[in-house]
Specification:
By secondary structure, the protein is α/β, with parallel strands linked by helices. It has three domains: 77 residues, Arc Repressor Mutant, subunit A (Orthogonal Bundle); 130 residues, Response regulator (Rossmann fold); 117 residues, Response regulator (Rossmann fold). It is built from twelve helices and 17 strands. It has a six-stranded parallel sheet, with helices on both faces. A six-stranded mixed sheet has the order 12-11-13-14-15-17, sandwiched between helices. A three-stranded antiparallel sheet has the order 1-3-2. Helix 9 links the parallel strand 11 and strand 12. Helix 1 crosses helix 3. The longest helix is centred in the N-terminal third of the chain and has 14 residues. It is elongated, with a radius of gyration of 25 Å.
């Protein structure tokens, strides 16, 4: 069988992928049949001057796809001739929120039927992330990762040394990083991200004409939570208020004791805080968007229905941008659109 395997030293396609493609092609055209033994890892690595890791990775993917099967003490054999030619994508998100599902759904829609996309959540947990990536790091053609983690004290962390190490160990040709660009991963790979600090500044600047009617701006930023938020939101808000001489305050939640004064503006991230502030506005007989302003992070159909002004990333665009680059094999770093959508609450 080794005579049928062809590798191109000048190709941009990784060697392990060339091995996979070559074996699958020869099965498809009938050069190799069910039950045929494929070369051992040592034999193939010696023949093509490859590392054992490269060949092992190729065989691992073929086993994952059930193209070949290993028989202990005997070798590895072709197990089927009806090959699933789909490329496999591991899609790792930090949480299964409405917005991360928008990214996933738009990616799947854009990438098309030739790709199988498997969704996993690691819930911002470093240990679970490392466990999942260690388990699957040799079995997928592409790795799409949304990097957000929490510390032991429930604060947001962009990455850790262990996370950076295991991501850097992935081939950059097969890596896609989404949403968060503060990750310390170097090299040429696909990236579509938000810029949390600049985004909130630019969005509030777009709303400035209406913001100036309020005496005080309050950001409701949950400092420690199971799914923590990037601190760049905080620094961006502080910079905007300082640069524009706005009186401002940062609180962790809207509680029963939170004062709501006339001519105050609240910026909320979590849904509970949005509901609580709207209830307080009504309880005080204030008019939303006139006496008290509200801006919420990330758009939803309910916010559209209720007339809530939002600043929001275009999560649908994030997923489709990434998929288009995968399809075109373009290694670029792009920023996803971030929008200010003006409604009645401002």
């Amino acid at each position: 069988m080794i005579e049928f395997i062809k590798l191109d030293a000048n190709s941009m396609v990784p060697k392990y992928m060339q091995i996979i493609d070559s074996i699958i092609y020869n099965i498809t055209v009938g050069n190799v049949k069910i039950g045929d033994k494929i070369p051992s890892i040592n034999k193939l690595s010696e023949e093509f001057y490859l590392s054992r890791d490269t060949v092992e990775r190729a065989y691992s993917v073929l086993k994952k796809r059930k193209v070949v099967v290993s028989v202990h003490g005997k070798g590895t054999y072709v197990s089927q001739n009806q090959i699933n030619s789909k490329q496999n994508v591991l899609f790792l998100v930090n949480k299964l929120s409405t917005f991360k599902m928008k990214v996933y759904d738009s990616f799947v829609k854009e990438i098309g039927d030739n790709y199988q996309v498997d969704l996993h959540s690691y819930h911002c947990d470093e240990s679970l992330f490392l466990e999942l990536l260690t388990k699957y790091k040799s079995t997928y053609d592409y790795y799409v990762i949304v990097p957000h983690f929490r510390s032991k004290t429930l604060l947001h962390k962009n990455s850790t040394d262990k996370v950076s190490a295991i991501i850097n160990d992935l081939p950059k040709n097969n890596l896609v990083l989404l949403d968060n660009k503060e990750h310390n991963i170097k090299g040429d790979f696909i990236e579509v991200s938000q810029d949390y600090e600049k985004d909130i500044i630019s969005a509030l600047e777009a709303a400035k004409e209406k913001i100036v009617k309020y005496n005080k701006l309050t950001l409701v930023y949950p400092k420690s939570t199971f799914y923590p938020y990037p601190r760049k939101i905080l620094t961006g808000f502080k910079k905007y208020c300082t640069q524009n001489n706005f009186k401002f305050e940062i609180i962790e939640e809207v509680s029963n004791e939170t004062p709501v004064d006339s001519k105050s503006l609240f910026i909320t991230i979590e849904e509970n805080d949005l509901v609580n502030i709207v209830n307080k506005v009504r309880a005080n007989n204030y008019i939303l968007g006139k006496d008290v302003g509200v801006i919420s992070y990330n758009d939803t159909p309910l916010k559209q229905l209720l007339g809530i002004t939002v600043i929001t990333s275009d999560f649908i665009s994030m997923g489709s941008q990434a998929a288009k680059m995968v399809l075109k094999n373009k290694k670029e770093k792009q920023k996803t659109p971030f929008n200010f959508i003006d409604r009645e609450s401002l």
